[in-house]
Design a protein that fits this description.
Layout: E1 4-16, E2 19-31, E3 35-39, H1 45-52, E4 56-61, H2 67-70, H3 73-80, E5 84-86, H4 91-97, E6 105-106, E7 112-115, E8 118-124, E9 133-137, E10 142-146, E11 149-150, E12 153-154, H5 164-175, E13 183-186, E14 192-193, H6 194-197, H7 201-207
Parallel strand pairs: 3-4, 4-5, 5-6, 10-13
Antiparallel strand pairs: 1-2, 2-3, 7-8, 8-9, 9-10, 11-12, 13-14
Helix pairs in contact: 1-3
Length: about 210
């Protein structure tokens, strides 16, 4: 079977620093007819499990630990037996949402996650959150960017645990060095390509985006 990318949008809330906002999240399912991984189990474990169907779920991969990206992760793991993977630098954020349940394993920069005959490479891209990661799948010409990079600019850095110069460095040094035709599958909103975003890096810096 050929690996492919499937997309699900779930809705809920994002809460941090005393505020709460309604959000729509992209949930990405990567794999084939036999096995998949889920990237960011947001809001609705039942809907995500239904999308996975009878396939083996190899892992629930968290691009970072803001609550809107992880709130359904433990429930999805319990339903499927899949491990929840998170970069350890985001444990303080994780514990705000799931104080009684730790992730099952750590993500590390350069780590490979294999599914359906392809490999997703973990890229540690702090800035939006300390343990933020992106997942690069060259076989699919795809980057799963979480909230590090969107169509039109970097992820937000105005709240706790975030830092604008760090996210700019992550995007410049870890993402924009990849092929320009790489499709960026974001945590919210529409996809883009690295080639479409690269010319605007200096604009973002000048604006303090």
């Amino acid at each position: 079977m050929t690996a492919r990318i499937e997309h699900l949008v779930t809705s809920g809330t994002f809460s941090l620093d005393g505020g709460t906002w309604d959000v729509d999240n992209n949930v990405w399912i990567v794999g084939d007819d036999t096995e998949v991984v889920v990237i960011d189990a947001a809001h609705d474990a039942e809907a995500i499990a239904a999308a996975v169907g009878g396939r083996t779920l190899r892992a629930v991969v968290c691009t970072h630990a803001h609550n809107d990206h992880i709130d359904a992760a433990p429930a999805l793991a319990e339903r499927t037996g899949a491990p929840v993977l998170l970069h350890p630098d985001d444990l303080p954020l994780w514990k705000q949402t799931h104080p009684e349940r730790a992730p099952d394993a750590e993500l590390a920069d350069g780590q490979g996650i294999s599914v359906a005959g392809i490999e997703l490479t973990v890229l540690h891209t702090p800035g939006h959150a300390p343990g933020a990661v992106c997942l690069y799948a060259p076989a699919l010409t795809a980057l799963f960017s979480g909230d590090t990079l969107f169509r039109g600019g970097p992820g937000a850095t105005g709240r706790s645990y975030s830092h604008f110069p760090t996210i700019v460095e992550s995007i410049r040094d870890r993402l924009l060095t990849l092929p320009g035709d790489t499709v960026v599958h974001t945590g919210h909103g529409e996809t883009t390509t690295l080639g479409a975003e690269a010319p605007h890096l200096q604009e973002w810096i000048d604006r303090g985006f």
